[in-house]
């Protein structure tokens, strides 16, 4: 119980930091799986790196479904707890694992080598790249249900104000993945497939750890048993989470389309984009973690009817984000070659990877507005706003700009479609965030006035 944090009391900045730091660490280690795999895979050559890069959208699709269900549940449970309805929050949590397992089972057909080969062919991969990626994808898909369990357990901890226990589980799984990657890939000679086996093993250990901590700390065991009223509970989770899922899903769909553009320029272009996106993701994780914390913080205080804490939380979010973004811009601009060195790239890949990072240095300036919008939209239970921003950013802006810029400036033009789209989406996100705040203030004021009239009538 000592791990739990009261989101409705105390200094806003201190509360959010205490709640968010473990989330940041968890996200760091969650994404470290893919980053470490990319580092080791890059040592195997351009075809191996291209195979893993082309599978990234598949991982993001699974993550989109998992995040939609888990974050939707976190918001519902947090709101219920803010209103004092602990039993209602617990019912939502118990309905989550069966739903998560069904969602992850959608990818099972890709365990077939023929279907997996067709998947790579659809993305424009050569036969050589597809042959390298089939084993990797099979183990990746086999690990999705395990990943779903981890997300479910993390949601239950997070909704109760405990972000430290999920952090410990992520650290444990990643330490094992880091140790097993070189063993499976190079000592055992499993190549790219070994990277996926190591990730599967790390996630499995994290799931076992979280299962044990749930039983000890909260007296709960996650099972696939369907609780009473599961249909209604799933309907509530879907109602909150579907827009979150679709918003996150826009990214992998857009990435698949971008990969199809980049594949025309060869494996080096696909690999350069992957190196940039992995590096950018790692340095932006603190802001992503803070966005997730903001969602739970806003939802809890919305249940309490405390507009002042919600506004103060958003102001702190932007101050913190700027402290991350400015050094990142300098780092990507001044040291792009040094940042790609860890991947041991060929000279041509260094050149393209540096160009991609230079474009990313401009894009990160506008990203805090996007993540602030995500946190507010989830916290206010208005995820359609999050969906709108994701659609504008990826589908309406970045993909068309990628095709347009590619026709004029080649693969480097695709890289620069990233900051151009981020600017357009960031401006829209800021405007929508201000609207959400205004709606919240008016709604809470009207509710307070109504309660006042009711109290006067009772008197």
From TrEMBL:
Transmembrane segments: 12-29, 35-54, 61-80, 92-111, 118-142, 183-210, 242-263, 283-302, 314-335, 355-377, 384-406, 418-438
Superkingdom of origin: Bacteria
Keywords: Cell membrane, Membrane, Transmembrane, Transmembrane helix, Transport
Pfam families attached to this UniProt entry: MatE
InterPro entries registered for this protein in UniProt: MATE_fam, MdtK-like, Membrane_Transporter-Flippase
Membrane-related topology note: Multi-pass membrane protein
Protein location: Cell membrane
Entries under NCBIfam families matching the protein: matE
PANTHER family on file: MULTIDRUG RESISTANCE PROTEIN YPNP-RELATED
Protein name: MATE family efflux transporter
Organism whose genome encodes this protein: Anaeroselena agilis
